[in-house]
Amino acid sequence: MERRDFLQGLALLAACPLCVKAAYAAEAVPWSYDSDAGPKHWGSLAQEDRACSAGSQQSPIDITDPIKANIPALAINWKSGGTLLNNGHTIQVKAAGGTLKRGDRSYDLLQYHFHAPSEHLVEGKDFPMEVHFVHGQTGTSALGVLSVFLTAGAANPTFANLAARFPQKAGEKVALDAVDPAGLLPASLHYWAYKGSLTTPPCSEIVDWMVAMEPVEVDAADIKRFTALYARNARPVVAGNRYILSSH
């Protein structure tokens, strides 16, 4: 199969999260952040994961030399609530819904999850944590992911609420009611934008990345509650030339 057709096939698979979940269950292909199933080996774990090594627009990246551009402002209207899940790789919240709009593009919030340390770097610098708000682009197979860096500082009520309820074992779930994901957003929504991929297998290159410039402070003790469960669940940055646009 030609590389282009292969990557397009991965895009269709990743557009259906339930299909991806079923594929993993059928193939029983484990992956992790270390050992022989770590990021260096993801591309050889299964046919559907080949983009992890063969792709040309992989994520995450080190954000350097962005180009200032007139890109649309972000408009966010997310709903509170959802389900908190320990999925064995991270803590994830299945969202209650809501939208992110960027110019004429509209995205529906599907879930958000956490990485430690941050997956993206800025001029070679990482942050203690990063949260990814994963959206499906309305009417297409693409995804839109808004990334926000988390750093130690003042307590953040939203993150503190989540941290106090983190499920301790893989597979455990906790229902959420009044937790507002917008509480994890910075005051400014200036951002960097680039075309990239999922940062976990199958690494499909279907993601419109929006990385917030301003980090959000959270209590250091709440960061430790996460790292006690997942000390390091970040894919290393992937080298390669990339056009990175800056809104500010």
Biggest sheet: strands, sense, closure? 13 strands, mixed
| Reported CATH architecture | Roll
CATH homologous superfamily heading: Alpha carbonic anhydrase
Number of domains: 1
Q: Give the mean pLDDT.
A: 89
Regions with little confidence, pLDDT below 50 for 5+ residues:
1-28
How large is the count of helical segments? Answer: 5
If you consult CATH, what is the topology?
A: Carbonic Anhydrase II
Number of strands: 15
Query: Which band does the percent of strand residues land in?
Result: 25-35%
Query: Rg, please?
Result: 17 Å
Q: How does this model look, in words?
A:
- The structure is a single chain.
- By secondary structure, this protein is α+β, with helices and mostly antiparallel strands.
- The chain has helices spanning 3-14, 17-27, 51-54, 157-163, 220-227; strands at residues 62-63, 67-68, 74-78, 82-86, 91-95, 98-102, 105-115, 121-122, 129-137, 143-152, 173-176, 191-196, 207-212, 216-218, 245-246.
- The strands form two sheets. Strands 2, 3, 4, 5, 6, 7, 9, 10, 11, 12, 13, 14 and 15 form a 13-stranded mixed beta sheet that branches.
Give the secondary structure arrangement, pairings included.
Layout: H1 3-14, H2 17-27, H3 51-54, E1 62-63, E2 67-68, E3 74-78, E4 82-86, E5 91-95, E6 98-102, E7 105-115, E8 121-122, E9 129-137, E10 143-152, H4 157-163, E11 173-176, E12 191-196, E13 207-212, E14 216-218, H5 220-227, E15 245-246
Task: Write a concise keyword list for the protein shown above.
248 residues, alpha+beta, Carbonic Anhydrase II, 13-stranded mixed sheet, globular
